[in-house]
Amino acid sequence: MMGNLLEHMGVDRNRLHFSWISSAEATKFVDVVKEISDKVRALGTTKKFAKDYTK
Amino acid sequence: MKKPRYVREDRCIACGACTEKCPGKFDDKYNADLKPQTAIYVEYPQAVPLKYAINPDVCLKLTKDKCGTCEEVCPADAIDYTMTEEELTIAAGSIILAPGFKPFDPSRFDNYQYANFPNVVTSMEFERILSATGPTMGHVTTFPKLPASPKKKKDKLLAQKRKDPKKIAWFQCVGSRDINKCDNPYCSSVCCMYAVKEAIIAKEHAGNDLECSIFFMDMRTPGKEFEKYYENAKHKHGINFIRSKVHSVTEDPETGDLTLLYVDELGQIITDTYDMIVLSVGLEISQETRDLAKKLDIDMSSSGFAKTHSFEPVTTSRDGIYVSGVFNNPKDIPESVLDASAAASAAGDYLAEARNTLTKEMQVVAETNVVGERPNIGVFICDCGSNIAGVVDCPDVTEYAATLPYVTVAEETTYACSQDAQDKMVEIIKEKGLNRIVVAACTPKTHEPLFQETLKNAGLNKYLFEMTNIRNHNSWVHKNNPDIATVKAKDLVRMAVAKAALAQPLKEEKINVNASVMVVGGGLAGMTAAKSLASQGYETHIIEKKDCLGGEALKLWKTAQGEDVQQELSALIADIASNDKIIVHTNTTLEGVEGFVGNFISQLKTDGKTTALEHGVAVLATGAKALEPTEYSFGKDDRIIRTLDLDKMFKENDPKLDTIASAVFIQCVGSREPERPYCSRVCCTHSVDNAIALKNKNPEMDVFILYRDIRTYGERELLYKEAREKGVIFIRYDVENKPEVKVEEECLKITLVDHVLNRPVTIHADLLTLAAALVPRKDERLANFFKVPLNDEGFFVEKHAKLGPAEFSTDGVFVAGSAHYPKPVNEAITQGRAAASRALTLLAKKDSLFTSGMIASVDVPKCTACGVCVSICPYNAPSFLTEGRFEGKADVNAVLCKGCGLCVASCRSGAIHLRGFDTNQILSQIFALDEVS
Amino acid sequence: MADDNIKIVSFLCNWCSYGAADLAGVSRMEYPADIRVIRIPCSGRMSPKFVLSAFREGADAVWVSG
Question: Is A53 at the interface with chain C, CB within 8 A?
């Protein structure tokens, strides 16, 4: 649902991630971080919705 | 005698710097000797205390007076080579022995060649191979005993043959149930289950094309939920179960592959090749433990297990000495946990008179009121020796922190957690009048309580604290990127400061604990729990539906160890009756329960009259009962009876027993079937025991036991052995091909397919005993009263299958006996004691039990009474107010609230606040993401 | 290089993923430094509001992990 809303706003789905990791799964944690990081890096930064404080 | 660590516990901060250059090496026991570790070491990463130690046998400094590197590099000056053995004397009122076991060493078995074939490993080794922190990082590979990057030429050649195995075999009963090749006649109880688990995990790690086969004699999965696990392994995971003992193993010297020779169930000789073999080694009592037991003068069985009485299952033969874990018979984790709690209760009961005579009061510093003050934040940046400072530019972060809004003091410390740093922190707080504290260091999960204590000592509310993790989440994981790590540290500190600025002092509400106890169920488990709690001075009420105490145990003849149940039971009932702290309510049912931990009010109905009982905790021990079988012509002939009916005949010395020439037992009647997919645990031992009794009565009698797997776990295996020696005939049947019973005038005719002869046999019997399943009462009303769950079969679901086996996730409610899972006398008593022990930890906190400060609270005027929070909360904490000005609005019970925040997120009017993690605090962290400047 | 400098706001459950992150540290595993961890008591605490605010404050991505 959240994803739909963001897409509606023009935010790429790959910018919102959900996962479930148990406290013993350090390896999975690292894998997920890497995966998300790669995906987001591929998209680049976004300032689309960032509030511009300089105005 | 305390052995020296050569590392000062008060100084070591477990940074691990010492291990980096240490030249001494020895096998890492924790990793089943599969990889080396340095001479200065910590046994495993979760060790408590997390303090390093030096192995004096391999340390160069201690053996040859060379090296000394660790002393040079230790940032905390903790190394002390001069430490010596210390003799400590502790005056104790009682002793609990929990020395554990040692895994069986299969080197001496020449047919499995463990010592010579590199691809034959023990289950302990395989366990480490599967572990992500193990020698192969969880990767299943052949030649696992070789180093990851071998240096020796020979090893290099072998390492080239390494491959991902496609076929793995497990051999059960290695060093258990064996008196030919070793002297362990008992069953180790845990190996069947761990082998099934290892096979499933191996498939998870190596992919579904891995073929796993388990070679076994009897599959023993009699624990709670174990049978379903076994069925899943067969049908869902496709693991092969082969009923056979492997004769011998040979190795292909080229590939290292292993060829097995065995005889299958149809008597055919089979050879098959596998890549790897796992020996499911049994549990043994070490010589050291036996020596200790001798020194303490306690009785042991011939296998070295401590002898205990079924009615005092954690008490050794010597008063004041108690036992728990595998030393008290082979057992798995939940049973060990139960044993431990039970031993604590037994040891405590023994010392009940001396309770609270040696405790000391803690000094409490008065709290300063900071409400309304402008935030005055102190930031402490921890170097953690070089753990953080080695990567993050701590002085830079400190300087930066000082520029953040509301920050008055920013300090860098070498070790924020050390005693002097803590004292200094208190000093600075007082001197500068700080009212919010931020510590940037390691993880709040381990260190938050320590710093909160410091705040308390400085007179600050402990919730005016925020911790941010610049070690575990930063310096340790970005050690090759110091610049980025420093930027990240600044971000994290900024976010923490923003959150801390909004922190409010929170109050922990005191929970009043009513000092009386309600036990539901007057069977063995319930009475045991009641007796223990009463002996600790708590008023205890037993609620029994029937007109007398005793429960199902009244129907039992004797225990597996031969004790007379009725004799012991009447002694226990007499004890209960004469104990003025125990009030027994017979003919009483429970009609309703209100309240929560410490403050329950239950409605009891006795002979139509309802009374209210106030109590602080409750123990549910409603037991189980024998199934009325619907098969094997039960009920159609009085020669077809259930196990308990046979017990009754023995108890009454029924003359009919003397006329029997042939007796048959059928096992698993109603158990291990789709309808009831669990093993009833007690029936195998019970039938074997009764079969022996029949044989003792008349050695000429023909006695048959028709079974699927004989599950005489632990030292009960000795009974199975005795029965076979006495001539009891065991015939296995398959669930698809059950025995058929024909009732005829002169005898009962029982026909089944013999698994050795592989053809039908017919037995003529005078008596057929059905080992009927134990079925729980499935009391949904009771479960609802206390909001505790029942599983599909109707047994209560405990808090944690391994670590919380005698309690519920509902605080203040405990479980014991067969209502949890079918159990024999000694185990029911153990759990009764364990439940009492867990209840006691709560009752003992009478004056010091507080709610957490970090809980939800309702801003009542904003509440629209929509009810979402009431329905969404997993702990039933929110409810509608029933009186007062805000009648109908929601209110959160501080005692029940666990602070998860579900209601806060779901509240559409924003009326619920989560103290400590309030919306504005989380938003403030988000707002502080980017530097404002 | 600007593209490399991304920020992923990570809401980690105190009992699960936060613990996993701690353990990753103890095991000295390395991973990208893009994440900024906000500890929450439970993933149930998450609210869409936080996701939107994070994007508004310039986050490049949001990660919620229970």
Answer: no
